[in-house]
Structure formats: structure tokens, C-alpha cells
Amino acid sequence: MARGLFGIQTYDVNLCHHASLSLHSSWNFLVLACLEGDSDLQFLLLGGKLVKVRSKSWKHGRYFKLEEDCQTFSHESKKAFKQNHTCECNLFSIDDIESVRKGRHSEGLKKYTDASVEDLCFSIIFKGRKKNLDLMAESPEDVNKWVSSLEKIINNMHNLSNQKKSEHWIFSCIRKADKNGDNMMTLKEVKHFLRQINVEVDDSYAADLFKKCDTSNSDTLEGEEIKQFYEMLTRREEIDIIYGKYAQTEGQMSDRDLLNFLLNEQREQATAEDAHRLIEKYEVDKTAKQNNCMTKDGFLMYLQQDDGCILNPAHRSVYQDMNQPLNHYYISSSHNTYLMADQLKGPSSTEAYIKALMKSCRCVELDCWDGANGEPVIYHGHTLTSKVLFKDVIKAIKDYAFKTSQYPVILSLENHCTVEQQKLMARHLVFFLGDALVKKPLGDTMPTNFPSPEALKGKFLIKGKRLNKLDSIFTNNNVIEDGTVSEEDEAAECKENSQKEKPKKSNIKLDKELSDIVIYCKSVHFNSFEHARENQAFYEMSSFKESKAFNLAETSATAFMHHNMDKLSRIYPAGSRTDSSNYNPVPMWNVGCQIVALNFQTNSKEMHLNQGRFLMNGFCGYILKPEFQRNLSSQFNPNALTEGSWLKKKIFHVISAQQLPKINKEKQKSIVDPLVKVEIHGVQADNASKETHHIENNGFNPMWNKKFQFDISVPELALVRFLLEDHDTASQNDFIGQYCLPLTSVQNGYRHVPVLNKRGDNISSASLFVHLMLLDAP
After folding, report:
1. Range from 369-383, 439-453, 477-491, 661-675 that averages highest in pLDDT
2. Is 74 a known ligand-binding residue?
3. CA distances from 412 to 543, 586, 615 (A)
4. In this structure, is the dihedral angle defined by the CA atoms of residues 223, 228, 229 and 234, taken in order, positive or negative?
5. What is the structure's pLDDT at 345?
6. What DSSP assignment string belongs to 585-617?
7. What pLDDT does residue 52 have?
8. Residues 6 or more apart from 751 whose CB is under 8 A from it?
């Protein structure tokens, strides 16, 4: 039975060779080893002066440098107070950086600097809602040096193996525990270190561990003694057991032994060549590698990398058929994309679009209103949310749409503008998006179905109102002037929410130029599935508010699914969700809805499920729906399962253990009492949740040895979510981390599970170790 894997076992050659290093230098050895002698690293360690930009009048010099830990950046300023100088120092971690942008590519730099200094500017973009750091250097050469050096060390950190990241974390905790910086650890500092790594032990255990390692009887640990302390602390008994069971060749795992492990435990269709590949890839001992053997260190390295991850490595790249019609895919979609926070008074920003697109969101929303000086703006109308220029949003979308995925992006327009400003909207779209904007159907004849994501690679589609049918393009019957159309359903609902009496749905004047670039996504009002089937063309699509959509999914699930076999459907959150909360997207996917729009700015369970749904297929933002949601003969009903191709019963076993970070960094003595919940999200019959008991005062290497079994009927629609919480008897449990993925992407056997924070970013030092068996039910 599997037990906890923390996976911080280190390469003995590294620690033995560097045992004489000080505490302050040994823990950053991992970064230095990869970039030893690198001029970019030396440049950052030396640092230099940059101008920090906050407004037109606030532009001040700061001295920026990378600290010795190779993980923390500082920027300082000297403030005169009478005749004394005090130093104001701000710190941020390399792990907090999302990206570095060269040029005036942030809202702040565009607003507060002149275009003439474009090549002197760059920005550091942080994860989450932390404000960007806008900077100016003295020369373009300095900008290039800062940007390239920062990108190199960021990439180096990202590319460290899980094992090395864990070592990095351990040594950073050792450094913090060495309060007086003498490169030795007293018993008191050892106790402080144990609290840093999230484990509470009684004084006698700490003293006993200390005494065993203090071979010099000096009442301190240093050099080799610290190495011994580290090895005793991180020894993993469960890995010893698993490795020992299969290492049948003079105490090591031969290629044949490894193949037996892959076949019997991992349930892989492996060959001798696969075993050789893994030894070549992960073994760290040259002699063992030459003998086609894998040591315990190499085995541990394998378990902690992509080959040993719960997510099937083949699903990390695009592997699905991308030549099906567009409506045969789930499409990662955002609601009110411009908002950074709530729906009433939060800021609107181009950054919100960039962040969504960089998460492979493929459908973004633009809420367009008349702005000052004739320029249309985007904001949440009739609220106090701030405004951003329409053209600035289009520029940002153009620049970042295809950074993480080449597949098409849909711009969903909610148009409240006058005809004059609509004309400018259309011209901005055509000018900035250029040939990437789909302005007519693909091919020379009137289409009868959607093109595929593959055919639309690198293209933008406009979703909005259109004055006439699409076939008018081919019949020379196109309108030559503006006309009137009904307003968007979502716009009508927003108006309804802001007024006491239900208003009559109004019409708006639509500009011909804007109408003409709506090709495959023409917005129409939904009446009924029968009306849509008889009267609507394939490219005419409806938006459903969540209450309407959930009602249809419950009462007319099969009809809804058949509707989505021919047309696109967009679902959006209720207008009453002023806090930008989200609805559960799973029931919408269960009936084949493609554009299930969520508030991407809200870190929530619903967004975790969305991230899990789109994790596979290269995280490209498009997931091919199951065959039974694409075949017109299908009678699948997620609410009342009957016999059919969708019914593939599986049994899912989970045995878990976890090493966790502290969640309350302000309270030094705070230790987590962790537990794990395993959730299944899919059709109603498959939804389930089970949890382990909590373990008191141990977030470092808790072991639950808990076995779960889930009976699953429709695995192709099921998501698995691992939720990690800090148990609290007096109040609601605190969130620690989570990970979600499709059940069809799960690998059998002993696997590590990454742990993500609320934002969906990886917690590099933490991982869950599980044993999984996804078996056909009898």
C-alpha cells in the first residue's frame, strides 16, 4: 500500500561534494549550479539603477538587484531624514513573476510615458492581482540586458525538477532558521527550522534527532552534520518499500526490473526500449546508467517528473482531432473579461484580457459603450467600474491572443454604442487585427457547417448582431446601409437587474461595417429548441443566462445536446453575481454547451474545474466533445443514464499522502492539520466526494494510507479534483491547495499529483503521492 512521498531525496553526489558550503550558500547552489559563471546571473547579482514609474509625476530611481539566494529581488531607495539616511527596501520573489515585457506594454507605461521612450521601458508582470512593476532603463541595451537576464533566471527556476525545487525550499528554510547567520544550527534553530517546514514535534524528538547528528558534540550542527540531519529528515520509507520490491539485481533496479514495475504497477503498455529510455533520462549515477540499471535516486527522479505524473504526458500536447467543426469542441471562455475584480466598482483593464488569453481562454467578452472624444470604451455599464479604450483592448488581444495557443479566438461583442462609434469599432477591428480577422466565410461557396479549429488557426471570429443572413454574401443581396436589430439578451438582463420594473426589450441601430464582420457567430434570441431547429442557420447562436440554461439542462437535456450538435451555445453568469462569483460549469458541459463563460478573475472551485477541463490537449483552449455528444443518433441524457456508448463503468482507487506548505506565514508557530478530499465531478450519478482523516501538526510528510473507491459510469465527462485543507474544529477548514484533471487523462499506478494554489499556479515544493487504479467494472 502506498504511503507518503515528499520527494526531497537529493543526489548524494551534490550534497557530499558541497557539504562544506555554508548554510547561506548551500541552499542556492541549485540555481548557481545551473548558471555557474553565467554573465546574466552575475549582472542580476550586481544589480543596477532603474526608474520606477507610478504616474506622470512619480518617477523615481531605485537600485534593483538579485539577492544571494538567487530567488529574491530587492529594490531600494535612500530617504533623507534630517541628516541621516534610511533605506527603504522592497522584496519580491522570482516565483511571483508571471512574465517580463519589453517596451510600453502595460497600461501604466502607456499612460505615464511618451512613445519616444518605447525602447527604454519594460515591465515585470506579477501573478494574481499584484500591481505590475513599470520600469525605465538608461539605454535600450540596458533594457535588453535586464529583460534577457530576468527571463533566463525565471526559466531556470521553472525548469528545475520537482526534486531540486524541494531542495531549494528546504535550504531556504534552513537559512531562515539560522537566525545569527553563523552557518551553524543550534537545537533552538533546529526547532525553528522544523516549524518552518510545517512539522510540529515534541522537544524530546527534536533533541534526539539533534544529538544523533551532532557527532562533534559541539552543541551545533555544521557541514557534514547538517547533511546527515537533512538525510535523516527526508528519508522516505515508502519509496524504500516500492523500490526494494522491484530492485532484484544486486540491490538495484535493472532494465528488466523496471519493465516489470511499469507493466505490473503502472499498468503501462511498456517495452524494454521504454525502460532504457527512462534509465537514460532519469538515472543520475553514470555507472548504473552504463549497466542499464536505475538507482533509488533515479527511481525517485522518475516518479517526480512528467513520466511519473498523474497527468498522461501524451495529453500535454495537442493530441485530439482538431479538424472537426468548431461546435464539436468545448471552448475555454471568459465572462466580462475586462474586469479585474467585482462587477460594480472594480477596475477594467487590458491586463485582464492578457491574463485570460495567457491561460488559453479562447472566447473573451467586450462590453462596448460610447466614450469621450468619439472613442468607444469597454466597462460594465451603469456601474462604477473603470473604463478602458476599445482600441487598447483590441491591440492587447492582437498581441497576446496566440502566445499560448494558435487556435481561434472569439470576440463576443455586447454592443451599446451609437452608430458613429460602432463605425470606429469596426475600423479598429479591421485595422488592428488585419488578415487575422475572419471577414467572410472560408471557401467560395455558402458553408453548411462550421470550419474546424485547425482551419481557423491564428484567426479571430466576431460574435455579435448581424443585419442579414450570411448567404447574402454569395447572392449579391447584401444590405448597403445601417439597420435595426434587437439588443443582446445579456444586455437586456443587465437592464432588467438595474430597474425595478421589467423593461421592454429594445432595439438598437446597427452599423453595416460592424455587421459585415460577424460571420460564424451571429447572435440571435432563443425561443425554443424546435424553433431553432426549424428557423436558425448553423451560424446563428444564442446566449443563455445561467438560470435558463440550468433549467433546460435539467428538463430537456437530450434536446439541448442535439441543439449543440448543430449550433454554438454561450452560457453566462447571472447578473445578480455582482461579486463575480461563478456557477458550476460541469452540468453545461454535460449537455454539450461549448462557450461556458466564467469570471476568470475569481479564484474559485468553478475556475479550478474549468482549468481541469482544459488541462489536456496541450492546454490549447479547445477540447473535443465525446462522440456521443456529436452523433445525431445519440439519446444520451446525463440525468437519466441508459445503455449506450457513453456507459463505460470504471472503478477508481486512490491511496494518498502529501507534503504541504504553511498557509499562515504570519504565525510562525502555525502548523497545518492536513486532510485530503477526492472529488468526482461529472454526470449526476457519478458526483461524489470522499476525504481522509486529518493529521495533527504535520504538513511536512503526513501519511494517510487511505483507500477510496469510486464507481464511475460516464468517465468521458468526469473530472477528478484533489482538494487539500487545513482542518479546523472551530470554523470552516482552510484551503491549502488543489489539482483537477479529466479522468480520461489519469495514469494508473504510483503517481505524483502537483498542488496548485487558489490562482491555479503551481506550489513548487508540494506534491501529493497517490496510487491509482482505473479499472473496468465487472
Report:
1. 439-453
2. yes
3. 10, 22, 23
4. positive
5. 74
6. SHHHHHTT-SEEEE-TTS-SHHHHHHHHHTSSG
7. 95
8. 303, 308, 309, 310, 769, 770, 771, 772
In this prediction the pTM is: 0.85
Q: pLDDT higher for 383 or 609?
A: 609
Nearest to 415 by CA among 471, 368, 478: 368
Q: 439: exposed, middle or buried (C-beta count within 10 Å: 0-12, 13-18, 19+)? A: middle
Q: Which long-range contacts (CB under 8 A, 24 or more apart) does 604-610 make?
A: 606/582, 607/582, 607/760, 608/721, 608/738, 608/740, 608/756, 608/760, 609/584, 609/585, 609/681, 609/719, 609/721, 609/740, 610/332, 610/585
> How many Cα atoms are found within 13 Å in the side-chain-facing hemisphere of 253?
29
Q: Does the annotation place 673 within a ligand binding site?
A: yes
Cell numbers for 206, please give them: 527534536
Contacting residues for 417 by C-beta, under 8 A, at least 6 apart: 368, 369, 370, 376, 425
726 is in an annotated binding site: yes
How far is the C-alpha of 125 from the C-alpha of 135, rounded, in Å? Answer: 11
What is the structure's pLDDT at 461? 98
**Cell representation of residue 13:** 553526489
List, for residues 111-152, the tens digit of each pLDDT value.
Answer: 999 999 999 999 999 987 788 999 999 999 999 999 999 999
- The verdict on whether residue 101 carries a ligand-binding annotation is no
Question: What does the pLDDT read at residue 331?
Answer: 98
Lowest mean pLDDT among 419-433, 498-512, 613-627, 711-725: 498-512
- Quick one: pLDDT band at residue 665, thresholds 50, 70, 90? very low
Nearest to 257 by CA among 236, 231, 283: 283
Q: Is 54 annotated among the ligand-binding residues?
A: yes
DSSP-assigned letters across all residues of 669-698: T----EEEEEEEESSGGG-EEEEPPP-TTB
Q: What is the pLDDT of residues 172-188, one digit of tens each?
A: 666 666 666 677 888 88
Q: Kind of pairing, strands 762-776 and 650-659? A: antiparallel
Contact status, residue 405 vs residue 360, Cβ threshold 8 Å: yes
Residue 287 cell numbers, joined: 555507472
Q: Is 78 marked within a binding site? A: yes
Question: Residue 62 annotated as binding?
Answer: yes
Q: Taking a C-beta distance cutoff of 8 angstroms, is the pair 270, 262 a contact?
A: yes
Output 19 or 333, whichever has higher pLDDT: 333
User: Catalytic residue numbers?
Assistant: 335, 380
Q: What is the pLDDT of residue 202?
A: 56
